[in-house]
Amino acid sequence: MSSEKVYIYPSLGGSFSMQRYLNGVIKGVEANQISYEVVEPKSKGLKAKYLDYPLLAIKRRKKDGKHLIISERYAYLIPFVGKKSMVVCHDLHSLYDQAKTPFIHQKIYRFFLKKMFKSEKVVCVSEHTKSDLKRLIPRFLNHPNLQVVHNGVEDFWIINQPVKINNPLLTELFNQKRVLLSVGTDAWYKNNQWSLRFLAGLNEEFHLLRVGDFCLENSKLIESLNLNSRITRLERISDSELKFCYQNAEALLFPSISEGFGWPALEAALNGCMVISNGAGATQEVFGKTSDLIGLDRAKEILKNEMGKAKAPEFLSWREQVQQLIA
Asked: How many structural domains is the chain composed of?
């Protein structure tokens, strides 16, 4: 393990998952007693991203150390950080035909990926993402240092102890209903319309707890299926509350048709929650084998007969993953 200082370049104003990835990397470098600095402009908006951020990178390029850019969308920083650069690529869903990404946005994204090719090391968070990268951007077939390092797991999700919370809404819901859980964004590849139609086909003892929003299209589907009274929506909850949900839910509905990594499925399984998923994208990869998952076509039978059992996949801590990440 190198003792060089690591300069970490986070995603500015990023999503919850990007912030979590950053926090995990920080925990990993601290656990390995590696000196680090999170490089982040104090300003906001386009000025921060395209002026102040490059200037901060330039000031650090002559210092000893490695430069870790934690999202492919910031690979434009590569020319400014110089050598010993690493970029993490999470997924390429923006380039899928189903995403219907506007042409100009695709061009910008491809520009970022073109810059990423110049990085000394490119790290994909799964073999699925690596495969997509080589398929959609063929030049990466010839990248000299293209690796896969899965996301790490925080100790909090591994500790197998019942969680107690002070949230009457959640505790009453789990006491009164058989709760199915849905966690994450409502991007097209999450396939959340399957979960809604699945719920509609179950009897009313089942209730869906949705942690995250619904897009307009799925909100309309909820109306048409008359499901409003059978769904509880929460935008944000604490990690302790989410862990409580995993520990007490009947199952996590995870019908994604693609995943760059798929944290919710891993978290749920580590906390004894059955995962209903076909294992698309990186999900099967993270679990090792799809027999540890309940396929979508078997879900209704399993829930009806209460036959399902959660199987926890193998995992690695952030300490171990950061060792690979910055090696």
From this structure: 2
